[in-house]
Amino acid sequence: MKIIILGAGxxxxxMAEILSGEENDITLVDINADHLRTLQDRLDIRxxxxxxxxxxxxxxxxxxxxxxxxxxxxxxxVNMVACQIASTMFxxxxxxxxxxxxxxxxxxxxxxxxSIPIDAIISPEQxxxxxxxxxxxxxxxxxxxxxxxxxxxxxxxxxxxxxPLVGHELSDLKKHMPNVDTRVAAIYRxxxxxxxxxxxxxxxDDEVFFIAxxxxxxxxxxxxxxxxxxxxxxxxxxxxxxxxxxxxALERKSYNDISQKISYQLTSPLERQSYHVKLIERDPERxxxxxxxxxxxxxxxxxxxxxxxMLQENIESVDVFCALTNDDExxxxxxxxxxxxxxxxxxxxxxxxxxVDLIESSVLDIAISPKIATVGSLLTHIRRGDVVAVHSxxxxxxxxxxxxxxxxxxxxxxxxxxxxxxxxxxxxxIGAIQRNDEVLMAHHDTEIQSEDHxxxxxxxxxxxxxxxxxxxxxxxxx
Length: 478
Fold this sequence. Notes:
The protein has helices at residues 10-20, 33-42, 55-61, 76-90, 102-105, 124-137, 172-176, 217-224, 241-250, 255-261, 284-293, 307-312, 328-340, 353-359, 370-382, 464-470; strands at residues 2-6, 25-30, 46-49, 68-71, 94-98, 120-122, 143-147, 152-158, 182-189, 192-194, 207-213, 233-237, 276-281, 298-301, 320-323, 345-349, 366-368, 387-393, 398-404, 428-435, 438-441, 453-458. It is of the alpha/beta class.
């Protein structure tokens, strides 16, 4: 596939790294020649220096015969214009754009085929807000991902001493919970992936990824660690796009309406419960504006790294502290201070991948990477075969995929075969299957049928092309 990526920021660079290793012809466009030169020395890609919205630059990038354009620059306007030019001048079949402004997103008519033809909008702020909401819904989880329209969730959790299953074989899970069907997709022990078998023993500090129906998530989590109390008190540092959206969503206001207008919905809506939310913002004008928009949130003008302010606001009683400013260092410091002063659980928005690797699970409870979350959303549209959802896991090293099986036994490598008969790539497991409105946990004798939604966990993303080929229908399928 010939793909042009516009913008060599964190998202564009990450997409180039992933896609260049998957038999794609990648061209990366950016105005920074030095940055492009560095990337070209490291990756097997073409680069073009220039403005992403200029027709001549797109011609040099090969837009005449490109299959796809990913417009992921830092400017919404540049991304929109680039997609318009790609459609008008080059008839590019598929166009994706990164749009961050809620002002644009609240007017979906802008992105119709008759106006600015964009096939899919990627909004990092909405993706991150959704991710935080799921973590609030499941306190104690490291990552929560939705599949099968929210009926199934893949949850990552760290096993602790005291969990009934810790120190026991996985086969004991069925004995403990005879009425709950779940599947452990992968275990990470000291950063080494372990493919789970019935006799695999769960050890303390293992990072366990399991799949279950949403209604059973807390019951399975209870087998691996003592459950945290439901979240009630939340403090947010930063009233930017994400902080404001999160506070709005917690008030159950306009967030869902905006999301639905652009075909991006909260796939794991919060249960109806009351949250006590405080929002801290350094900029007095921004704090004043946000306070006028929010009804129930207490908005404070101040600095989240101010120890006296945090103590005055009873940080020790906060269930979840979220540092969501645009400054990585400020987020880390604020979250560290909140943790030291007694906040039960702290999260920080971290853009730099090196920081995420250093602090997650050691200094802070959860480091949220916009890059990884956004890349996963883009991959949903790029993967070959009929792929419904893609999520990056383990800081991009692994992936969870929801793919649709088509064809029959003669044209498909999966339809008409049981899970044990499918030749899965190394490190790949099938966790669950959605069949019509029914969700089935995948066992060795489960047979895949046409139109099943199959949820897979891929430990090593280098095997993604093999997984894609499994779900591509042969030429005999009509």
